[in-house]
Write a structure and sequence with these properties.
It contains five helices and four strands; from the N terminus they run H-E-E-E-H-H-H-H-E. The protein is of the alpha+beta class.
């Protein structure tokens, strides 16, 4: 378990310091803001859909290391996926971070996202980890109003 914790810390720090897909996208077909008032995390998600496929996904914003790393890893995981695949990944990720500590982690299904299993040990950080994901879900549903984790 200590190896997973070390990997968790390394990946979180790396994606926080060097977030992937951290940019505005003028070609985005959907743009939505997300806010976590508990921690102060704010982000804007840019989603470019083409015939139901996520052609591009990016974000800008500020927040804690977990929030920024989660958004960064999410964009990497979802680029090129269909909307249906993105929803399935959302469901697996959400289950991962909200299930009991002893729940199994399916690394094959989640890939790098599996490192967020450590978040479930800190219930107050779950909203940080899921902010980008709930913002994505709202974008996929076509919502235009800002979403909040509260």
């Amino acid at each position: 378990m200590s190896d997973l914790r070390e990997l968790y810390q390394e990946v979180i720090v790396d994606h926080n310091r060097h977030p992937r897909n951290f940019r505005e996208n003028a070609a985005a077909t959907r743009k939505i803001e997300g806010y976590n008032p508990l921690c102060g995390d704010k982000l804007t998600l840019f989603l470019e859909l083409d015939n139901g496929v996520i052609k591009d996904i990016s974000f800008v914003g500020t927040g804690c290391a977990i929030s920024m790393a989660s958004a960064s890893l999410m964009t990497e995981a979802l680029k090129g996926k269909t909307e249906e695949q993105a929803r399935a990944i959302f469901d697996r990720f959400h289950t991962l971070v909200t299930q009991d500590k002893g729940g199994a982690v399916d690394e094959d299904q989640l890939g790098k996202l599996a490192i967020f299993a450590g978040v479930r040990e800190f219930p107050t950080r779950v909203k940080c980890a899921t902010l980008a994901w709930h913002t994505l879900q709202a974008a996929l549903e076509g919502n235009k109003e800002a979403i909040s984790t509260e």
